[in-house]
Specification:
Structural class: alpha/beta
Largest sheet: 5 strands, parallel
Shape: elongated
Radius of gyration: 20 Å
Number of strands: 10
Helix content: 25-40%
Number of helices: 8
Strand content: 15-25%
């Protein structure tokens, strides 16, 4: 290449799905990209911010559809940076909240390639907020847990058992396939009547919401045909959602 290239990588959080929830700093990074490597959970509308001549590469990373291994993505990122200049690694949500962002940062460091991190709105906070469900609220919740639904060994996280015994709001990402098991954990903790919600495709036009008690949650999710990607919320704060008052009225009428 004739032009001088500045080799660098930007790890950019795309937010929960709505392209307008990308940060202004994120827009500026995309505008100067030579290459964009983007995940399945990022909105392709964001690619319009990148120069027309920029190389755009889809690298997958959706459950059951790993088009590239993490190792392959790491290497692609370095190869493109060394050969083309500024690589924007566009990741859903926030790169450091179950986004494996630090693995990519660490790999780049081993090649002495400078990395800038631009945080994104994590779905763990942003999606509940868009539903007017605060993860903390005076008198209801003093803290919140953000937990992965499935660990690397395929089991649910041990942290879910601890979180179910707390008064904290519990937000579980990538947990839909384990919903029956997760619900049983909360029931075992005496939380059958705890308010809970499931949000599919939060912040997008395909968004779906189910609000119920823990006891009724699985049946409601099946009835609504909720699919991944979905986020689970357990906690008294879910009772603040307007639809929850109707649920309480229905249960009162039945009993």
């Amino acid at each position: 290449m004739n032009k001088h290239i500045e080799t660098k990588i930007t790890l950019l959080g795309a937010g929960p799905g709505d392209p307008e929830l990308l940060t202004l700093k994120g827009v500026k990074a995309l505008q100067t990209a030579d290459v964009v490597l983007y995940d399945a959970l990022t909105n392709e509308a964001l690619l319009a911010h990148a120069p027309e001549a920029a190389i755009k590469v889809y690298v997958g990373k959706r459950s059951g559809e790993h088009s590239h291994s993490q190792g392959a993505i790491n290497q692609l990122m370095i190869d493109y940076a060394l050969n083309y200049g500024h690589v924007v690694r566009l990741k859903g949500g926030d790169p450091f909240v179950f986004g494996r962002g630090y693995e990519e940062l660490d790999f780049a460091a081993s090649y002495a390639v400078p990395v800038t991190v631009i945080p994104g709105i994590s779905s763990s906070i942003g999606v509940p907020a868009l539903q007017q469900i605060p993860v903390t609220h005076r008198g209801l919740s003093e803290s919140f847990w953000v937990i992965t639904g499935t660990t690397t060994n395929g089991q649910i996280s041990d942290d879910i058992y601890q979180a179910a015994n707390s008064n904290a709001t519990v937000v579980i990402l990538m947990g839909l396939k384990k919903l029956a098991q997760i619900v049983s954990v909360f029931k075992a903790a005496g939380k059958a009547q705890l308010p809970a919600a499931v949000v599919q495709n939060g912040s997008t036009e395909n968004e779906k919401l189910v609000v119920a008690t823990v006891e009724q949650l699985q049946a409601k999710v099946e009835e609504a045909q909720i699919e991944a990607p979905a986020l689970l919320i357990f906690g008294e704060v879910v009772s603040l959602h307007p639809s929850f008052k109707n649920i309480i009225k229905q249960y009162a009428a039945i009993s």
